[in-house]
Amino acid sequence: MEKIPILRMGSLLLVTIQVDLYDRLAENLEADLVQTINKTGAKGVLIDISAVSIIDSFMGRIIGNIATMSKILDAETVVVGMQPAVAITLVELGLPLKGVLSALNVEKGIELLTRKIADDKEPEDADDGDSE
Question: Of 108, 16, 33, whose CA–CA distance to 70 is shortest?
Fold first, then answer.
């Protein structure tokens, strides 16, 4: 059975989808990715869909599910390389992909994830120390 490889790069996971996903492969990717986040403690997930030419509502939901589950496990998700036709299809299907950040390419996606992770690490009480 085919599997989509999940590569670890420090605190990030990189998933490069090189084939059009069918339902079973997409579901397996979702499960494998969530397990890998849990096992590695990854803080970011970058999903490169530049080779994906067709997306349907099921795939849109899978991407949204991955982002939601990743967030619950304290990891941010960025989708990169979305082709214009895929973006148009997602909008026409009414799939806003809430919680999914996007970037133009892998390099910009890694920069975005790195910034987002660094921002999340900053203490929330970064005021002047007066707590009256």
Answer: 33
